[in-house]
Request: fold
Amino acid sequence: MTPTDWPSRPPGHLIWLHCPTHKGLISIAKIIERLEEGGTDITVVLTADTLPAEAPHPAFIMQPIEALTNPRTFVRHWQPDILIWLGGPLVPAYLTALDPFETKRIFLNASDENISRTPAGWFRTSRRSLFRRFDVVLATDAPSATRLRRYGTPPTNIENIGILDDPHPAPTVDETALGEIGEALKTRPVWLAFDPHVTEIKEILRAHKQASRGAHRLLLIVAQSDKDESCYADSGMHIAFESKGDPISDATQIFVTEGLDRKANWLRLSPITFIGGSLSEASRLDPFDPASLGSAIIHGPGTAPYGPKFERLASANASTQITQTQELPASVEDLLAANINAEQASRAWSVISEGAEIAKTMETTLTSLIANRSAA
Reply:
């Protein structure tokens, strides 16, 4: 792509957003929308290693990475008021191209990993100069903030605020169906095994039997994609199979459903969720789904493909990880205690809502920089 292919620079404030991985892109689009609603005229030029299929907001002009082959030409054409570097390793050529201009530079999602991946040559010779170019650095954690200070970023320019990620939408609950199921359950305590692997069923049943000794009328809901019911044959417990039309009665100890499409209902009903597959292969559920609906989480070591989300929950002590099936009964018993359950669920909610606070900080930062630019 050559400069002749670029549209003219529009009037008003222009932000260059470099977002290599798209992480946080939707959140930035929502921030821009709120600024526009407040009367600010903004255009965002988005560059990324791979562009999204469509612009996340009408104010975005998407430019492929080839547009940055000559970064000085790119910057001269667009003359951005603000650069937002949203994650990923720094590219010195892009940053230094801004030097002749008065562009304010923000490093968002500045993590230890992204900092350390800046090209080695720059680290040896000019790293302090490179990091000093940022007017605002929003670090993901304390170790990252420490490294930024060590690499020359003025401490007054650094704020440790966490990770700006895209908001996690809570699964939609069918309130009518939820009310009907709730009527059948009445006040019974409940826990959920969501889409377990067949190799996990035996230990799930053992965990339920053990937990039931201390929790009167405890009900286990198993929402599964595997239609094999033979693994329940020798459980010695009263099992209702939704596929056979069995109702949930007072005698029912386990309710087996194939209703994965009603995921949100089961998660809302169950204060405890064991994430199936995580003890045998890989997680079959995004852990932010139960977290968004107030269900405390138990899982095994198989966290792919949601590894980063599990890590964020673990770092906040907002989930219970077990390493082997034999640990499941004790974990269920612990989380049946209302205070422990509520504390873990609350911490998980804080993790998934963290992005809202970070987005607010980012919005305030942009508002201030734009106001200062207008007054200059």
Q: What stands out?
A: Residues 338-375 form the longest helix (38 residues). The chain has two domains: 3-166, 175-353.
